[in-house]
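Sample intake sheet
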Amino acid sequence: MAGIPDLEVFAPEPARGRADATASPRTLTDLAYARLRDDIVHGRLEPGAKLRVEHLKKLYGVGATPLREALSRLTSDGFVSAEGQRGFRVAEMSLAELDEITNLRVVLENLALAQSIRNGDDAWESGVVAAFHRLAKLEQAEDPDLGQWEDRNRDFHLALIAACTSQWLRRFYETLYDQHKRYRNLARIDKSMPRDVHAEHKSIRDAALGRDVDRACAENERHIRRTADVTSRILRENTGV
């Protein structure tokens, strides 16, 4: 794939503004949850890092109560671990967990994809075509923005399952997608195993639009496992997990 490495890495973002003091407690909790989750997924908060409420208050401009509620939600999602009375830490990472997350993502995403292909109408097809087009423009660029590529990659996978009617399935899938993304973002860019990711995405798109459920699911699983295989090797070689 021209210009796109197998794995994407993000530099830390600039500090963000403080929360609106007039926002409701519920809104502040949602805000803290979204920002913490994003920083964990993109590696700005590293695995095992202590999450001190006083520090997070200054970092996000949110009070202690919304932060603790957000941390509890992130614990339920598996992004944070609670240490009894000792507070919270960013969840650790392991090869065994990567394998489990990969297997679960394959199962849930393919369930959603199969249902979406069977239910999809003209609007669904148009959404898949548009999302693929936006993604392909970056995949074929000489010097693509990796953060933008990740956003469009996510949009493409979500467009494929957009006609899935199970809200629970979609909710669990999105959590697993971010857990998988967390591992990809930890790994260093690797060029020793050339891949044509654009061709992989095109194969999934063609099978989905052709209403070939079996082929679409097979191509999608192959795509997910290729990324997991590269990530696993890099984790073993460079991080010791």
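Comment: The chain has two domains: 25-90, 95-238. DSSP finds nine helices and three strands in the chain.
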